[in-house]
Amino acid sequence: MRHYGHLTPAQRRALFHREPADFGPASPVRTLGVALGATLYCPATRPRLAGDILKQAAAGVVSMVLCLEDSISDAEVEGAEENLVRQLQKLLREQHGAEDALPLLFVRVRTPEQITDLTGRFGPAIRLVTGFVLPKFTAASGPAFLEALTGAEVMCGRRLLAMPVLESPELLHLETRGQALPAAARVVDKYRERIPAVRLGVTDFCSAYGLRRSPDMTAYDVHLVASVIADVVNVFGRADGTGYTVTGPVWEYFRAQERMFKPQLRNSPFSGRAEGLRARLIEHDMDSLLQEIELDRANGLLGKTCIHPSHVAPVHALSVVTHEEFSDAADIMGAGPEGGGVLRSAYTNKMNEVKPHRAWAARTLLRAEVFGVAREGVDFVDLLAAGLGASS
């Protein structure tokens, strides 16, 4: 699979200086962590789950979580498990020989026992599952989940990945955070080759204090949340080889809401070519989503948890590396590991300091590999319009 693979070859040639590369469940975990993009969560209770997966793949979704946890009630778990097994087996029959066209599929479980139980019940359909999402992950709860993952691998004879979700109160509360985050990181480090990304459960963090941000605000406007995001990136997101991809918080809104503040999108990027798109984004509160995606990346996060298909195209459009970013990153990396000094950007608008900017450049080139590099003059509006047009 690849990002923007749902567009025609002609559309991709018009948009990309370098097209996104192919990747799949067997790719290196570091590549997969960057490639996740907008990870669409879907309750495992959906009666047409197999068809939903195919529909979202055709619209450009490359990663999905089939959820047995918070998205369903306690009374629905048994039925959801049965439906999930049935739907994945159906999907395997229908896609036999074409599994590469499916998104990366992760199952969000409630307990460690579900990992081994479901792996056995899936039968041959386990080969459609890339891995499992581990909720409420802490140093105390995490080992049982990861040991169950290892057992499931032995059972099915293939690699299974895990995405821990950091969302428990002890990771948020000031008096325990300083010890709880490093302790959780030490557990994750033992399974580094199985962890493509660490996810943030910001809704649960807000719940601990009875908070909920409005559609006019980003997660970074809620200072309590912003502080824990900073600490998670500090522990899990370092660029010294010890870090992981940390994904952005969920955006909860997908229908028009009563607005209190002015729109966040300027007119000029849309002027003369996409005024209707700007109005559509503002009408559905996507302007705040776009701002949050930009703030995610500025704060060290990549990718995003999504609960509605309409959120996918904005996440992916802002994940594509711009021609200017690529030019700067390539120049910095081209100076060599022993190089130094300052280079003037080819765009003549900034300095590129080789040693301090080298880690940024390496990350940018990895993102360029999986999301592609936009042509000079192509911006997020063009990419967003193409993505929304292909998925509508």
From TrEMBL:
It comes from the Bacteria. It holds the Pfam family C-C_Bond_Lyase. The keyword Nucleotidyltransferase does not apply. InterPro entries: C-C_Bond_Lyase-like (IPR039480), Pyrv/PenolPyrv_kinase-like_dom (IPR015813), Pyrv_kinase-like_dom_sf (IPR040442). Its cofactor is Mg(2+). Keywords: Magnesium, Metal-binding. The keyword Metal-binding applies. This is ATP/GTP-binding protein. It comes from Streptomyces hainanensis.
